[in-house]
Amino acid sequence: MNFNQAKKTFEHILNNMSKESRTDFLMWLTDYLQNSEKINDLSIQSTNEDMILESIRDEIQEILPVTATTNTETILVPKVGPNADCDPDITVHVDAFLYDEKGIDHLVDQGKLNRNFCTRCGSQDVQPLNFISHSTSIKQIKYIFQYLLPDLSNKTILDIGSRTGGVLYGAFLYSNSRKITGVEIDSSFCELQRTIIDKYNMNDRIQVIEDDIFNQGQLASESDIIVFHNVFDFFLPISDQERMWRFVRNTFRRKGTIIISIPSLEDMVSHLQTDIDLDTWVTCLNDPDLLNLANIHLYGSVDNEDSDLADLFMYQVIG
Fold first, then answer.
1. Closest CA to 166 of 300, 68, 79
2. Is the pTM value of this prediction over 0.70?
3. Considering the domain boundaries, does residue 262 fall inside one?
4. pLDDT digits (tens), the chain, 319 positions
5. Last residue in a domain, options 132, 163, 187
């Protein structure tokens, strides 16, 4: 039995259980995974695709600063919305594709990063810093392409604000999508992505377009899968964010188009004056059982405190 057959069998078992039985089964499975030496040994083995993605991550770590920002981009501080608490004096930009929680701990141990700030200089009165990422983590990438999305044969993927390119590389490695496109306005990030794509021979399916997504309406309207990650909040003033979201709503109208967003669309548009009615535009496809299964596989437990999978939302356009 190969992986896809095992996955379908497992999903069939879950689909034929009551909600209460599924919860009990997943809790049993968690305990089994945590206490079985054989399963634990297997779970830490990496696939060839995992090793390639991790190699890309390590290479980019050597190129970019810890904050993964460039001299050619301007980051704005949100004044309203879910990220309005990101005071620039106590907010640290750390790219989740490059550094997971263990990676951040390593940076702290090396003295390259702090987790806390002193509220009274010289005292022990400290509070945690805000950490913000503009990229999708490796585990979130695997969650998208190995759990959430269906078979992507002949499908096209568009990552809006592709930045360091994690979603592009993950889509290439973990899916059979026909075409993968990143639209990124920052020239430095475009150059970085093209360097990685060339080195790892991904040119046959990945392209990077240096442009404002506002100028790529036809590409956007024809894409099957759209990925957003904090795409406008830290980079555009409110009036421009509202303009961009109206463009997004008017462009992504094809029924069946799938939108992957971090955070939720509700969080990204609720504080803006856009007149977007999400209920008539999209339906949320998040599945708690699938999230639990992914957490068990990727983090070792249903409720691992380091998991960032619940921050990811999947929608389908309905009109």
1. 68
2. yes
3. yes
4. 666 667 778 777 888 888 778 777 877 777 666 565 444 444 445 688 999 999 999 999 999 888 777 777 666 555 666 665 556 665 666 778 888 777 776 767 777 666 554 444 544 444 554 555 557 899 999 999 999 999 999 999 999 999 999 999 999 999 999 999 999 999 999 999 999 999 999 999 999 999 999 999 999 999 999 998 877 665 577 788 888 889 999 999 999 999 999 989 998 888 888 989 999 999 999 999 899 989 988 988 888 888 899 999 999 999 8
5. 132
Domain total in the chain:
2
Alpha helix (H) ranges present in 175-319?
Answer: 187-199, 217-222, 238-251, 265-269, 278-281, 288-299
The two structure tokens encoding residue 70 = 């460039």
| Residue pointed to by tokens 């980051």 | 75
Domain that holds residue 160: 142-317
Consecutive H or E run containing 108 = helix 101-109
DSSP letter (8 states) at residue 182: E
Query: What CATH number is associated with residue 164?
Result: 3.40.50.150
- Indicate whether 186 and 270 sit together in one domain: yes
Q: How many CB atoms lie within 10 A of CB 58?
A: 10
Cα-Cα-Cα-Cα dihedral sign, residues 53, 177, 288, 281: positive
Query: Looking at the DSSP assignment, which residues form a beta bridge with residue 184?
Result: 210
- Closest by CA to 81, choosing from 276, 310, 270, 275, is 270
